[in-house]
């Protein structure tokens, strides 16, 4: 599949940036502030899913309040259509969207939604019933809309910069799960024997989510756009015809200017359409789609409700969720080791398809295995999820111009979230199978009694 010309092969852009930065200045601008940028991207990724991961991590609180409504599965299923629909709308209109306003709106909505969890709990006095549960679902939907703003917008924006920014952003997303799991262990240990312990832990989570979301608003609005490396890559994208970076450049102190290359050499500012980009990268899109179908068909619903009771007692589900989150985080850093990073397109597809062998492995382990095997399998699920995600999202944008990289980042996130949605729906198949097995068992016992 042929790709468009790499940026480094387009001399017009190089000469334009040389005029702006100077020949020596280009090299400095491409690296100055890089490590700060990587750290900020990690924090921005963390804030992207901290609120929703918090809701999943306190599933024991929601299960206690709403035992009849399968809250772990319902909350996930409520969240997914909104994040998917929002991302699809933005992906279709990606070239016309003000990326800065899109991401800021998303982070502000993350803050308001996390704050809404606290307000809802205070108004209902920690009560159960259908009313508070509907309120929780509405907040989950709002978090989905926020994620639809941010995840695609940030991935597209970072895809036109250095690969380390994308890697760090998605590592931050995984870190949000690991941090919420660690905090959940802490709150459970501290509040387990206290009155209203579950509720206190849940409120602590929501308060921390508010803090992270507000921190992300401030970092993205006032710090990130002023980093020299960020201004360099966005200036480069603007010189290639990108309109999505204009507001961010202005926030960084760079006024938007007409694109001289558009008149001198129009081919340099032309870009592939979304359809052409998707055709050239269908294997990458299929990769992220299949990765998350498999992951969400097991995590968190199956792990929370279908793995039985073991010696760890009420800590068992928390250990499984923590095992996935920590290994997912580790997996997202493994591609930094070049020797083990998967770069072959065929190799990535084979690895992604091979992961489906985990389905029978989880089924038989839940039925016949002990908790040690289940924890190991869960760690393998998370490790492969994180590693393959970063490999795909850092390899796919290589060789494209800035506007195309932004569009491709949005497209890949759309397929990623589509996989999450289908996986969340597929997660119900475990429950249906459980009900069918129970029904068959009851009929068999009834037949034996008759005879």
From TrEMBL:
Keywords: Membrane, Transmembrane, Transmembrane helix, Transport
Superkingdom of this protein's organism: Eukaryota
UniProt cross-references to PANTHER family, sorted A to Z: EQUILIBRATIVE NUCLEOSIDE TRANSPORTER, EQUILIBRATIVE NUCLEOTIDE TRANSPORTER 3
Entries under InterPro entries matching the protein: Eqnu_transpt
A molecular function GO annotation: transmembrane transporter activity
Family: Belongs to the SLC29A/ENT transporter (TC 2.A.57) family.
One term under GO cellular component: membrane
Topological category with respect to the lipid bilayer: Multi-pass membrane protein
Annotated localization: Membrane
Record has Plastid as a keyword: no
Name of the featured protein: Equilibrative nucleotide transporter 3-like
Pfam families the record matches: Nucleoside_tran
């Amino acid at each position: 599949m042929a790709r468009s010309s790499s940026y480094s092969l387009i001399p017009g852009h190089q000469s334009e940036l040389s005029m702006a930065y100077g020949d020596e200045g280009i090299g400095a601008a491409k690296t100055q502030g890089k490590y700060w940028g990587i750290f900020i991207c990690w924090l921005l990724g963390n804030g992207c899913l901290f609120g929703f991961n918090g809701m999943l991590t306190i599933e024991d609180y929601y299960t206690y309040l709403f035992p009849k409504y399968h809250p772990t599965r319902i909350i996930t299923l409520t969240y997914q259509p909104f994040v998917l629909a929002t991302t699809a709308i933005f992906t279709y209109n990606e070239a016309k969207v003000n990326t800065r306003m899109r991401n800021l709106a998303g982070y502000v909505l993350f803050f308001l939604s996390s704050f809404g969890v606290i307000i809802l709990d205070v108004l209902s006095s920690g009560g159960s019933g259908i009313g508070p549960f509907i309120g929780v679902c509405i907040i989950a939907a709002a978090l989905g809309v926020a994620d639809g703003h941010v995840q695609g917008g940030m991935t597209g924006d970072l895809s036109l910069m250095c690969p380390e920014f994308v890697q760090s952003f998605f590592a931050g997303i995984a870190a949000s799960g690991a941090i919420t799991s660690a905090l959940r262990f802490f709150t459970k240990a501290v509040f387990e024997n206290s009155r209203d312990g579950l509720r206190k832990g849940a409120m602590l989570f929501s308060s921390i989510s508010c803090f992270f979301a507000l921190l992300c608003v401030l970092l993205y609005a006032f710090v990130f756009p002023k980093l020299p490396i960020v201004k360099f890559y966005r200036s480069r994208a603007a010189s290639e015809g990108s309109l999505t970076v204009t507001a961010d450049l202005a926030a960084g102190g760079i006024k938007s200017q007409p694109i001289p290359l558009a008149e001198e050499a129009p081919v340099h500012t032309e870009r592939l359409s979304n359809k052409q980009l998707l055709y050239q990268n269908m294997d990458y899109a299929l990769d992220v789609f299949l990765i998350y179908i498999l992951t969400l068909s097991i995590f968190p619903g199956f792990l929370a409700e279908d793995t039985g009771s073991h010696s760890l007692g009420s800590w068992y589900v928390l250990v499984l969720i923590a095992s996935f989150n920590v290994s997912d985080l580790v997996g997202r850093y493994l591609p930094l080791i070049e020797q083990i990073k998967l770069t072959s397109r065929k190799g990535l597809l084979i690895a992604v398809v091979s992961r489906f062998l985990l389905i029978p492995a989880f089924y038989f382990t839940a039925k016949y295995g002990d908790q040690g095997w289940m924890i190991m399998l869960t760690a393998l699920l998370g490790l492969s999820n994180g590693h393959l995600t970063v490999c795909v999202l850092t390899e796919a944008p290589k060789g494209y111009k800035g506007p195309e990289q932004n569009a491709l980042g949005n497209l890949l996130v759309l397929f990623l979230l589509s996989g999450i949605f289908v996986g969340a729906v597929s997660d119900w198949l475990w429950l249906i199978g459980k009900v069918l097995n129970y029904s068959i068992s009851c009929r068999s016992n009834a037949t034996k009694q008759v005879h």
